[in-house]
Amino acid sequence: MSLTAHIPSHRKPRRSAPKSALRAGVAGGVLSTIAVAGAAGPAQAEPVTQTIEMPTLTSGLSTAVAASAEATQQVALDLETQAHEDAAATSAAKAATKAKAEAVRKAEAKKKAEAAAKAKAEAALRASRSEARTTLSASGSTTVASSSSSTTGSSSSSATGSAASVIAFVKAQVGDAYVSGGTGPNSWDCSGLVQAAFRTVGVDLPRVSQAQSTAGTQVSLSNLQPGDILYWGGAGSAYHVGVYVGGGQFVGAQNSSTGVVQRPLSYDPPSGAVRVL
């Protein structure tokens, strides 16, 4: 008898084959059943019923809805107010444009009326002067009493005939404008006025002051007669001329500030004089 015959063995006992086969068969049967049940589909499953509860409106939600409605109404009111303001602004702009156009029209009409009135007055003045010149020139026998004086002496004489006509012409131009190179009928320079005055009596004088200062006989300033030509500067180099009208007075187109004036000899004493008539 062996010494280890009574010592129990620590090895697990072998399972018998029949038990293993049985377990395998059972497991295979279960799996087959599950497979068959899966193939059968949900048609064999019982329906599941679930109840869903809907939330109820609370007082807070009602307040929010009311506030939203009020905001929408306010926006509508604001839009309506803005529309009214825009319409009023457009209407005011149209009215302002119309008023401006009317003001411009009235201003232009007033300006035209003033221009027409001025032109009419100037035409009437020219006609009056023209008539006066024609009458004076036609008379030819008008007598102008005058006395001659100067810084060195005086004398008196009567202007008749051509001299009277020359004097009447230059006096009729007093108040006209001075324009360099002007020869009338409403603006003159000094030599243009003298030339036009003597032309009315058929005397054709040179155009410029230098030549007019030597156009006649040189006379003393103490022996002047109405109708004599006065000059300023040297004979042949004069820079200004005028007409002695008697009574110690002369008429000349002085400058752009004064125009044609009648002044005493003391206002601007001449340098010399020539007698043409």
Write structural notes for this entry:
- The chain has 277 residues and is of the alpha+beta class.
- The protein folds into two domains: 63 residues; 132 residues, Alpha-Beta Complex (endopeptidase fold (from Nostoc punctiforme)).
- It has five helices and ten strands; from the N terminus they run ααββαββααββββββ.
- The strands form three sheets. It has a six-stranded antiparallel sheet with strand order 5-10-6-7-8-9. It has a two-stranded antiparallel sheet with strand order 1-2. A two-stranded parallel ribbon has the order 3-4.
- Strand 1 and strand 2 form a beta hairpin.
- The longest helix is centred in the middle third of the chain and has 81 residues.
- It starts with 16 loop residues before the first helix and ends with a strand.
Task: List the keywords.
277 residues; alpha+beta; endopeptidase fold (from Nostoc punctiforme); six-stranded antiparallel beta sheet; two-stranded antiparallel ribbon; 5 helices; 10 strands
